[in-house]
Design brief:
binds flavin-adenine dinucleotide, six-stranded mixed β-sheet, alpha+beta, about 20% strand, FAD/NAD(P)-binding domain
Amino acid sequence: MAQEITIVGAGWAGLAAAVKATQLGLKVNLFEATHTPGGRAKSVVHQGALFDNGQHALIGAYSDTLELLQTIGLEAQALFKRHSLKWSYPNGACFGLPQDAYPFKALRSLLLCRRFSAVEKSSLLKPLLFALSHMLWAKEDDTVANLFKGVSPQIMRDIVSPLCLSALNTPISRASAKTFVRVLRDAFSNPPESCEFLFPIVPLGEVFPLPCLNWLRERGARIELGHRIDSLDALDPKVPCILALPPWQASKLTQDKHAEWSNLAGNLKHEAIASIYLKGERSAAHSNPAHANPYPLVCLNEHFEAENCVHPQFAIQRLAPFETVPFERPSNDPLTKDSLTEDSLTEHWALIVSAAGPSERQKIIEHALLAARNHLKLQNVQLQLCTMEKRATFSCDAKLQRPPSFISEGLMACGDYVQGPYPGTLEGAVRSGLRAVTELTHY
Ligand SMILES: Cc1cc2nc3c(=O)[nH]c(=O)nc-3n(C[C@H](O)[C@H](O)[C@H](O)COP(=O)(O)OP(=O)(O)OC[C@H]3O[C@@H](n4cnc5c(N)ncnc54)[C@H](O)[C@@H]3O)c2cc1C
């Protein structure tokens, strides 16, 4: 077995691979092009405050990610706030699954949900049975829209479409039914907490990338931040290597020597995600349904056509940015002035536009501000930051051919896009990082 390993890229996949390799006793050389680890899931400083470079949420079924955090000595309770799978709609109605949402309980909770009529609910039964059989027997993939054909438009708009967009970042008309059903299966058939949402309560960089780097350094890893690898020739050919890069970078590096693999990675299509961070005041005298609901998650989907995805689908109430910063802020920092006043309370929200079009930034901001005023009923709404990641994840389309982790002997790839059961998520990235090390060390 090799004594040493090179990992290129310190996103969640590369860091997971580095932890696994260290556990196996390998000497790790980790190269990262930027000066901050975390890749697409890290914190960014904006006007003196820390934000995430995209609002992230995990679910309890992200078992490998949660285990990895434990491995490096982190406690999930200190990093996330857990919420059962519930959200409210701007009109005050809410949809939620009980904490112990095993499949039949999930079905029961849907049947009891007052938002939908009996006819609408019954429209779901056939596709749910179909989904179950799809999960168990289907060999061919299909789109989520086809899988749920016949379901009432309201249920598609208010439940299926927002769930699919948040899980796969791909519209239902193209999204892979197999992958969607797989995520649902993991969320609903495992222990009860699998279907809970986990919202970070510390900056994303502190959730994993920064503590992970410290953990690796303490164990002797050689970590080179700000070191971009532009060619495979720059690496020691005698040391096995894992490319933990986004697909377009991995494709570039492998173009000359591994054209077939490179084409598979390079041909993937991508979806954007916009996160609009804003704050606004809620007058105590004008408490509204969204506020009256104790849920930090509001589904805004009913206010736009499902396929026209330039509007926010979800709004997540978050801690004020300064509260998430682990260091002291100067007392004259304007952000520290947000506070409870006599008749109003400042609230912080992140509105999320999944599968956002690439050039709609201004439109997205306008819609988000409108949604905050009209649907979240906030006053004096102020935009704090809009992050727009044009290639946030690959398009998780039906029948998509994803590149395998094996490139050539001694050279593997990992990342959220590499073949695996998950869509472009943190869990997908972590799993592929762990798997790449296992496979590489078996050669
Ligand atoms: C806005 C947004 C919201 C998201 N929301 C969620 C969510 O709620 N839940 C969820 O599970 N997932 C979410 N995701 C997806 C998740 O962030 C990604 O799936 C995951 O971060 C991908 O990790 P990765 O390690 O595969 O790739 P990356 O994060 O892209 O890491 C690749 C690393 O390689 C480095 N690199 C690139 N080129 C080179 C080079 N030539 N040499 C050296 N280093 C290089 C990069 O700087 C980067 O650090 C979201 C993504 C975005 C953008």
